[in-house]
Structures are given as structure tokens and as C-alpha cells.
What does this fold into?
Amino acid sequence: MSFTIAIDGPAASGKGTIARQLAAHFGFAHLDTGLLYRAVGRQMLLGVPPLEAAQGLDVTGLDAQALRGPDVAQAASKVAALPEVRAALVDVQRAFARRSGGAVLDGRDIGTVICPEAEAKLFVIAGAEVRAERRWRELVASGHEVTQDEVLADVLARDARDMNRADAPLKPAEDAVTLDTSKMAIADAVAEAIAIVERAGASG
It folds into this structure.
């Protein structure tokens, strides 16, 4: 049996944390689709043409920690705006989504483009300042030297690029349930997400 949970939302909204914990709770496989674009962006920074990087991507060997830097994040946002790159990665994501045993995918166009037939759809949001503080804490903890103002500027730039791109812009699917994590503890956000997915028919 396949059951797909599609989770979309802007950077640092909490969608990745929620996706991982939903996958653990329901026993589903998880794919952070942002890592696909980060991996392509990293290759672009190394001089590889974006389309070539996307077509040759090995999704089994993605090192999340190596792809977390701010320069890679910006590069990922830029390659994600290229229709040919998005097209090259669609089939990989759709195949993962319909695997037997269930799947959770998080990204920016999962419920609208990749998996419009997903059984459960969430759109996870949070205020820009809240998201910037979260991302700043992550970056500082991993050894990056950045200011909160720099991270906020980066978050706002990514939001603008993601929401205004011509191909698969960031927006909630019409049947997605919006979850605002701005004032929620992680445990409370995850509990609410589990309830939403259970109402959609999944059993944990």
C-alpha cells in the first residue's frame, strides 16, 4: 500500500523536522527534496552546469550536513528556479512518493506539482523573523559566522525567489492544511501534524 504525505513551506518553517518525525511515527520513508536542489546547487558552485548536475544526481548519497551552508542554500534557490532542472528531478520525486509502505516528501511544490494526488497535504509556515532566528541558530551551531540580519535578508530573498518564480512557485495546494509553527513548540507542531495526517486516513 502507498500513502503519500506532501509537506510544503518556506525555508526554516519547520517542515523538515515535522516531515522526519511524521515519517518516524508512521513508519514511512522520507525525502527532503530540498537536498536534491542543494546537491545540484553545490555542483553548480563547483562549475558543473545545473542541468548536467540534475541529470546525474545520485539520490542515495546525499550528505545533508555538507549541503547546509548559506552559499549552497542560495545556489539551490537559483537552480530551483530553472524549469529544466525541476523537470529533471520530477520523476525521481514521484517514484519515491509512490513507493510501497508510505512516503513523506517535504519541499516547495510537493502538493501542487510533484504529488497533487497525495493523500495528506500540509503547508507549514512561520513568520520571517521567527524563521530567520531558527536558521541563524542552526548555522551558528554548525560553525558558520553569520548575523541574524544577514540570515533574515537571505530568508526574505529566498521567499521572494521561491514564491515569484514562473515554474512551480511556492504556494499551498488548494486542499492543503496550513500549519503555522510561529508560536508552537516542536512537540506541539508534530502532534498537530500527526492529527492532520490521521484525519486524512493514515494510521500510526
Observations:
- The first strand starts at residue 4 and ends at 8.
